[in-house]
Amino acid sequence: MNYKVSFQELAAIQQKILSRQQPTTLEKAKKQVETLKNLSSQKNKKQRS
Questions:
Q1: Where are the alpha helices (DSSP H) in 1-49?
Q2: Whole-angstrom Cα distance, residue 37 to residue 29?
Q3: Which terminus of the chain has a lower count of CB atoms within 10 Å, N or C?
């Protein structure tokens, strides 16, 4: 990776990447939050045991 990239160049690259991604719906975001909550709670239960 080229570490000699300015913040402006990095922002432009990231905008191009984001523009290629599918838009996220509210339902998808909520589903992802629920999945992460479930995985997190399972991990916490394992650590407490």
A1: 7-20, 26-48
A2: 12
A3: N
